[in-house]
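User: My collaborator sent over this chain with a note saying "see what the structure looks like." That's all I know about it. Can you take a look?
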Amino acid sequence: MAKESQMANEPEYALQVEDLNVEFHTPSGVVRAVSGVSFNLKPGEVLGIVGESGSGKTVTANAIMRLLPDTAKVKGSIRMRGRDILHMKPRDFNKIRGKEISMIFQDPMTSLNPVFTVGNQMIETLSLHMGLHGESARRRAIELLDLVSIPQPELRLKQFPHEFSGGMRQRVMIAMALSCDPAILIADEPTTALDVTIQAQILELMKELRSRVSASIILITHDLGIVADLCDRVNVMYGSQIMESGLLEDIFYETAHPYTKGLLNCLPERAILDGRKKLEPIQGSPVDLMLLPEGCVFAPRCEGCMNLCLKRRPELYKVAQGHHSCCWESVLHMTEQVVHA
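Assistant: Without extra context I'll predict from the sequence alone. Here is the result:
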């Protein structure tokens, strides 16, 4: 009965982001980096956020972690287990960041302090958030390095970041992010700065960790192959907005948005399955976030662009249960189905 009561009290969502907007005011103008982004993250779920560079993925993550510069103007709502963390006092949020919600950054060399040993940096986090000191903190640090498959963890604690390879530094960052058993873990392009062999090792590690830790995970990447391996649901971003959102199977096999189709056509595996000898890149250049068009942000690059697409911006439209697309073609297709039904 106690267990059932505990499950009943568990929040439906670990994180709720509603109508998030982020603008940067620069001498050249206003950069609309994130526009009307909304999504929910369930407990224990792995959500992928995918898109080209400059689509708003990392800014969304930094807004959640409240790591944006003073030039950023943030509107909307970000709630973690019902608490409004976007408008929380900085002193209160600092108690949460690193403990209940952690982030793995793209480049571990710029995230680790070069003048302190790895052990010092890990123990500082454990001391600040977990109240561990001395030998108990050291033992916990060793356990974490062992968890991420770093050999000789006792020796490694005494070494400096420059004494680690790129892959090992990324493992240290993962260990530090997991040190306080966070409820939410954000991984921002965790394999970008690594060579192909090390990328595969880090991804294999994340697969293993997914089954061993209970954290909800937001995985930010431009690589749909990584998404296919790790994620339950996917948000596809372009031009600061979510273009398509759905379960992994929806995105790969019931693709609704032209931009998502374009990303999939860039995959070598998809070209082989379709019998194509060449990849099909998306034509044109990414939209300028300082000059977002009146209509659909993808319209200038879309082969199926209609007059309506140039004049009015579509909203995320439900194409199936749990599957949404920000495309007028999807709206018209669903309308036709309703009429014929």
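A starting point for your reply to your collaborator: The radius of gyration is 21 Å.
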